[in-house]
Design brief:
2 copies of one chain form a homodimer. The first copy, chain A, is mainly α. Helices cover 72% and strands 1% of the residues of chain A. The first copy, chain A, has a two-stranded antiparallel sheet with strand order 1-2.
Chain lengths: 339, 339
């Protein structure tokens, strides 16, 4: 079920890796991980249980790595970036806990979702707890600018969720409307994670704008490739199964394109399956078949490639060093996951 | 100085034309043109002189054609679309008059700018007059939704101009920041022009969203190609000369990409030429040479192609008829101008 993606001219296929970034921030990241474990602690034993269920489930921790790398690239020598990175990961974890409740998801990163083990109420409240802990760590760092950027991201993310609730189940969603949703739901946190790096390092407008742009466009590319993989990856890559989005009735870009490009019969299929949630045997295969016919997965990845190119240019002015090379490779890595 | 652009797979080169759209809306457009002439009239003789200088200078009137075509595609049979189309063109004309004052431009569409003939004050005030006339025509049509969309566009355009004033002359502008400017300055009016078509026809949310998305993305593609042509077209195509943006110190996407991808020496060049306005003999050629080195013009067109693809998908759900085919061809026409 792999998706064949045309290669960019002169680019080697499948060569991009996340490991150079992991290696560069490893020392800092170990302290982020310790902080995450300690700040998820509570005398209320259910809190660390629920939090650690997700925290220890093997996410790549891409977002906090962005914060660490951006701070280091900005010449930062202090300690604040570790707390900001942990805050970013907590914001992400809180979002996942709440998302699974809203989407009624059963699985997350290849394990039962927290809400399936401890229930919806615990998932909502532990998410709130982590968000509170995230803000406490930000306040500890003492940068009002960083607090502003992350608090804004928190409300934009929530706004994006509500936008999606409102747009959800409407097959007439346009690509622009869907992009507005993922710009808020996914890209806003990538953007904030990257921007707080130069902020904590005391850098000015242009460095902040460059990292914000890098984060935003990487986030968009990342989410679009995720959307594509959901109709053509293997569950090992994703920590979820092919077709999860389909079964949950999520309207993502491959669906938007297939619907808009489809025949009347195609559209009736999508309305039945995603708007009314009537999904039967063989429907996922039919959905994937329609996507193939309309090149919806390829073009979703093509759109991701556009945002990846913008992300790369955002970092172009920085001196060529290991951090920059690693962050550029992350862009390619996010897109090449589609292979 | 032509730019060589890689072709999209399976697309014939240079085949796209604007004429099918022109032919389809011709009867309506004649009435728009009459209305434009009559509403630009005034007992204050300077008003029609200034207005007609620009009105009769051979613009393509793409925006009002979008309104007409979108209304017809939405099954509209009334008269309101003619007034809305004239309003859209007046809004555009007013913007051009004001722009030339703000940018201190000498030429517009191959003729001296109105401000060079009648002065800045007359240009500002006649722009205001046309904007007032535009709103009067919209009120005549009586659709509050159309008024809302066009009034919002008017303030977004002004916001975009101010944004550009603030961002102008800063070489550290990111691609995202530049896109935000042209989204407001150019794409907002394309978007409103297209959206009022389904509105006046009484169509619902999804048709409005589709035309809005088509207009927005066509506008973005159009502006980016314009930006590219300014560094590589012939003045016959543009009604302005190659290098106008450069001489006026405008920071457009080809410049943003060249600057960000450039060496320290390149950046010093751009800062001198565009931030400080110190432009000497041979500087335009050097600027174009740097753009070639960094593939800045090709990639600007590549970005335009992305937005063009989104515009095409916005219209995909509509039945295949002459109007849809003509509007899709306009997307390709806007991009193929780059040849």
């Amino acid at each position: 079920m792999g998706v064949v993606v045309p290669l960019e001219e002169g680019k080697k296929r499948g060569g991009a890796r996340i490991e150079p970034l992991v290696a560069l921030v490893q020392a800092d990241m170990e302290r982020v991980n310790e902080l995450i474990l300690s700040k998820a602690g509570s005398d209320v034993s259910m809190i660390p249980e629920v939090a650690n269920h997700l925290i220890s489930s093997g996410g790549k921790r891409l977002r906090p790595m962005l914060t660490l790398a951006a701070a280091r690239m900005s010449g930062y020598r202090g300690e604040g970036h570790v707390k900001l990175a942990a805050s970013v990961e907590f914001m992400h974890t809180a979002t996942l806990l709440h998302d699974d409740v809203v989407d009624e998801s059963d699985m997350r990163r290849g394990k039962p979702a927290a809400r399936k083990v401890w229930g919806n109420q615990a998932s909502v409240l532990v998410g709130d707890f982590l968000l509170g802990q995230a803000f406490k760590m930000m306040v500890d760092v003492g940068s009002l600018d960083a607090l502003d950027v992350l608090a804004t991201a928190a409300s934009v993310i929530a706004e994006g969720e509500v936008m999606q609730l409102a747009a959800a189940k409407s097959m007439t969603t346009t690509e622009d409307e869907y992009l507005a949703v993922i710009r808020a739901k996914t890209a806003a946190l990538f953007s904030a994670a990257a921007e707080v790096g130069p902020i904590v390092a005391g850098k000015g407008r242009s460095e902040r704008a460059a990292f914000r742009s890098y984060g935003t466009n990487l986030g968009l590319a990342f989410q679009l490739v995720d959307d594509a993989l959901d109709y053509g990856g293997s569950s090992a890559d994703l920590g979820k199964n092919v077709g999860d989005d389909f079964r949950e009735g999520k309207i993502t870009l491959p669906v938007v394109l297939s619907y808009r490009r489809g025949s009347d019969a195609d559209r009736a299929f999508w309305q039945r399956a995603l708007e009314r949630g009537e999904i039967g045997e063989g429907d996922l295969e039919q959905a994937i078949g329609m996507m193939r016919t309309h090149r919806a997965i390829e073009d979703t990845i093509e759109r991701a490639r556009h945002f990846g190119a913008v992300a790369r240019d955002a970092l172009a002015p920085f001196p060529d060093d290991g951090f920059k090379a690693a962050l550029l490779e992350v862009v390619d890595f996010c897109i090449e996951r589609a292979h």
